[in-house]
Design goal:
It comes from Castor canadensis (American beaver). This is Glucose-6-phosphate exchanger SLC37A1 isoform X2. With about 500 residues, the protein is mainly alpha-helical. The chain has a single domain, classed as Up-down Bundle (Growth Hormone, Chain: A), CATH 1.20.1250.20. About 70% of the residues lie in helices and about 0% in strands. α11 packs antiparallel against α17. It is globular. The termini are far apart. The C terminus is likely disordered.
């Protein structure tokens, strides 16, 4: 009998259950990457919505010199280019405040909706809930772009679109984290979720490239194409998402010991057979357990501290997300497309930062200390960034990569591994329903900062970009301050202070 090809031997070396875990890992990665893909266009298009103009009256004579027949023959051209300052109403001197209002509308709605989304998500099938959110998000992302084709110049239209889009996008994060938590247990959670959380940066990069392709020629497509992608992924979610291993009757080894819930058994150190998927019995983790209340989730040790830390960490991250391309345009004098492409380096750094944070926290078993170290390094790095980015393109590239790693590392770790640790804390006694609510509380609180950051940047940037960076450095310091108690506990105790291994003492 002929020897099987190497590729086939590789495929059959994995069990059916391991292939399902890999499939869910990739699918949830792509689903949430598409959410971030649809959030990025607004930051790319800002440079097109408002262009630098030498004087406020330059365009008036230019238009009046055209004949009436030309105006009637090309109404689109006239409407789109009424002035050299961009697209009304963002062509005014207060454009930074108006653009900041768009960011604030989306992020404020996202923050408010997130607190409700986790509670609702616990009580509905994840697949249906997530599918609805992705279809709705795709529709409202595309609707923003239709304002270009229908010559809509009402600020209210764009603000309302952003508000509704922010609300429906809250269906995403609690759903994908809960689904991943069902399939992957405590073992090497920092590494697994550090790699998985790179979907944020991958989505931002793809969103930047897609939006940048059309931004200078037809910025409406910068929203319509990402909207179509999100909606298409919603259909994929409906057709393929598996919420829990028990839904496909994976071979299971039942265990009530949380430490045995390692669903990735490739290190060879576990006594269980590698084809087994560890699932809690129905009495511990099944649907019969009541969902946790909002106040009950807040009483989990560590939830409040990490939530407040994320508020300031996400403030910094989302300020970069929404304002970095415009900053690069102002400092390096690049057009909107090139600035958008260059801004993706921040997200490339974020990929490495998230993975590095996960690996370090797994090795040290100290989540708070890992976050604290990166926050401590991030503040001076931002100061250096604000200084050397004015020296040329090469300096900007280097600082984008470094800043992206240090800013995104704590943010990625808290929203994934830390949230999953706290959502499966010992004090919950196996209540898996808590994961969605805990995730929503932590990310919802962080989203308050995400709403404040871009708004403050819009208000402060007219006085100079240096002041914006000072604001970001203060935010990093505040994030570190809220972790001081947890860091002290981690350094004074032999074990970790989050998750299932060593619960915090409540005070």
């Amino acid at each position: 009998m002929a020897r099987l090809p190497a590729g086939i031997r590789f495929i059959v070396s994995f069990s059916r259950d391991q292939w399902y875990r890999a499939f869910i890992f990739i699918l949830t990665f792509l689903l949430y990457a598409s959410f971030h893909l649809s959030r990025k266009p607004i930051s790319i298009v800002k440079g097109e919505l408002h262009k630098q103009c030498t004087s406020g009256d330059e365009a008036e004579p230019r238009l009046s010199s055209q004949s009436n027949s030309e105006a009637q023959g090309s109404p689109r051209q006239l409407l789109d280019n009424e002035t050299d300052c961009g697209w009304a109403p963002f062509d005014k001197n207060n454009y930074q405040q108006l653009l900041g209002a768009l960011d604030y509308s989306f992020l404020c709605a996202y923050a408010i909706g997130m607190y409700l989304s986790g509670i609702i998500g616990e009580r509905l099938p994840i697949r249906y809930y997530l599918t609805f959110g992705m279809l709705a998000s795709g529709a409202f992302t595309a609707l923003f772009g239709l304002g270009y084709f229908y010559n809509i110049h009402s600020l209210g239209f764009y603000v309302v679109t952003q508000i509704i889009n922010g609300l429906v996008q809250t269906t995403g994060w609690p759903s994908v984290v809960t689904c991943l938590g069902n399939w992957f247990g405590k073992g090497r959670r920092g590494l697994i979720m550090g790699v998985w959380n790179s979907h944020t940066s991958v989505g931002n990069i793809l969103g930047s490239l897609i939006a940048g392709y059309w931004v200078s020629t037809c910025w409406g497509l910068s929203f319509i194409v990402p909207g179509a992608i999100v909606a298409a992924m919603g259909i994929v979610c409906f057709l393929f998402l598996i919420e829990h291993p028990k839904d496909i009757r994976c071979s299971t080894t039942l265990s009530t010991d949380p430490e045995m819930q390692c669903l990735l058994l490739s290190d060879g150190k576990n006594a269980l057979h590698p084809s087994h998927v560890v699932v809690l019995p129905p009495g511990d983790g099944g649907s019969s357990t009541a969902a946790i209340s909002f106040t009950g989730a807040l009483r989990i040790p560590g939830v409040i501290e990490f939530s407040l830390c994320l508020l300031f960490a996400k403030l910094v991250s989302y300020t970069f997300l929404f304002w970095l391309p415009l900053y690069i345009t102002s400092v390096d004098h690049l057009d909107a497309q090139k600035a958008g492409e260059l801004s993706t380096l921040f997200d490339v750094g974020g990929i490495f930062g998230g993975i590095l944070a996960g690996v370090i926290s797994d090795r040290l078993e100290k989540r708070a200390s890992t976050c604290g170290l990166m926050l401590l390094l991030a503040a001076p790095t931002l100061y250096v960034f604000s200084s050397v980015s004015k020296m040329g393109l090469e300096a900007t590239v280097a600082m984008l990569l470094l800043s992206g790693a240090l800013v995104s590392g704590p943010y990625a770790l808290i929203t994934t591994a830390v949230s999953a640790d706290l959502g499966t804390h010992k004090s919950l006694k196996g209540n898996s329903h808590a994961l969605s609510t805990v995730t929503a509380i932590i990310d919802g609180t962080g989203s308050v900062g995400a709403a404040l950051g871009p708004l403050l940047a819009g208000l402060i940037s007219p006085s100079g970009w240096t002041n914006v960076f000072y604001m970001l450095m203060v935010a990093d310091a505040c994030a570190l301050l809220f972790l001081i108690r947890l860091i002290h506990k981690e350094l004074s105790c032999p074990g970790p202070v989050t998750g299932n291994q060593a619960p915090l003492k409540e005070h």
